[in-house]
Amino acid sequence: MTAFELAVQLRRPEFTLDVAISAEPGEVLAVLGPNGSGKSTLLGVLAGLLRPDSGYVRLGDRLVTDTASGLLVPPHRRGVGLLAQKGLLFPHLTVLANVAFGPRAQGMRPAAAEERARMLLAEVDAAEFAGRKPAKLSGGQQQRVALARALAPEPSVMLLDEPLAALDVDATPAMRALLRRMIRDAKQTAVLVTHSALDALVLADRVVVLTAGRVVEQGPTREVLARPRSPFAARIAGLNLVPGTACAGGLRTADGPVVFGRGDADVAAGDRAVAVFPPSAVAVYADRPHGSPRNVLSVRLAAMEPRGDTVRLRAGAGPGGPSWVDGLAADVTPAAMADLGVEPGAEVWFAVKATEVEIHAVGG
């Protein structure tokens, strides 16, 4: 039995959400995608806050949305928990009362609800705040309490809507570790909406990538982020991605040039495919290089981004050059940057060895 399953369509002026996904009990599913891709809409459909134009949502063995019969179980009767960017705690209640609220609303006796609340507050390292009001807590402390409150009614599915996005840098690692521990220990089924590759790697078993309301990629988290098939997944994984068609020795781009690389065993000539390579594999030259690199591209330097011990150079399409080079990244040392002596707008050459490029088939 799946923990949840949905197949829905919901039309919006800017896009149509058209997805079919499911998760197994205890599985954490990360939903990634650019702004406006439908991530929050998907959560709204799961939670019962939005009625799809067609389709169904099943939670466990219960049908909670079914447009054919007009069924729409309200959010408070679905057994779904929500942890959003901000804690959204009830400001007039103490921390203890906030966490006990869900169990009490389900009919649990006050003493039992309070006992469960104290247990969860101890588990999220917030027991000392039981008597305080939310206004007396930091953002990280509020998020710990919000996690306890979301878990208190023992939801069948937890919806995590970018739960770390509003936290400061110091609070984020501890909260991420806490989320992982609490979800894993409880064997909690969860849907995590995030823009962070690290959050997905640490918390999720599988990843679904949405673009314009549709699933463009899905699979085990490490596989998707190590071998991305969509531009968004490649970008958050910090990799360069070039789309095209598999051919002998590599990938033929829409503009015609071939990117040479090593193909997967399941890639055949003529398949839709992507070439993927890390920015660290890109060498940058002020003049066209000679020698072993098989992939040599003329680009316009669009931006320079300091990144700790390296400088990330972003490419733009040069005059008359292929459009797919736009956004490609190269990581160079500050010393190499000084030797290049170039500024944004300059013409430079990106070179990548074929052995550094992997070719993967894509679906659809």
UniProtKB/TrEMBL annotation:
Residues 1-237 form the ABC transporter domain. GO terms for molecular function: ATP binding. PROSITE patterns: ABC_TRANSPORTER_1 (PS00211), ABC_TRANSPORTER_2 (PS50893), MOP (PS51866). InterPro entries: AAA+_ATPase, ABC_SmlMolc_Importer, ABC_transporter-like_ATP-bd, ABC_transporter-like_CS, ABC_transpr_FbpC, Mo/tungstate-bd_C_term_dom, Mop_domain, P-loop_NTPase. It comes from the Bacteria. The keyword Coiled coil does not apply. Keywords: ATP-binding, Cell inner membrane, Cell membrane, Ion transport, Iron, Iron transport, Membrane, Molybdenum, Nucleotide-binding, Translocase, Transport. SMART domains: AAA. Residues 290-361 form the Mop domain. This is Sulfate/molybdate ABC transporter ATP-binding protein. It comes from Pseudonocardia hispaniensis.
